[in-house]
Amino acid sequence: QLQASGGGLVQAGGSLRLSCAVSGRTFSTGAKAWFRQAPGKEREFVATISGSGISTYYAVSVKGRFTVSRDSAKNTVYLQMNSLKPEDTAVYHCAARDSSLNSAIPYEYAYWGQGTLVTVSS
User: Fold this and answer.
1) Using an 8 Å Cβ cutoff, are 57 and 67 in contact?
2) pLDDT band at residue 72, thresholds of 50, 70 and 90?
């Protein structure tokens, strides 16, 4: 199971940190990812961290502004979002897969949490 939190309203240029509490065996072995979906748009990839926690991969639109990390002791994955822009407004979802390898493809993730809404005002 995955439980995302940390969304909210922030002004452009501000920061937010999303958290995703993960339970079950997939935390220690599987890759985790963040996706987002804006109103009227398809779900898009944001960031992923490998099962080992060593490798990360980002969408071009967020690279250099967002950082994905994990805390094994807390079974939690984070998404630190800095320099937020109005176009970052979306519902953010965390996801997990059994494979330890990173993937940017939504259907390769079998486990999903509920979303958390991030709204960036201009």
Assistant:
1) no
2) confident
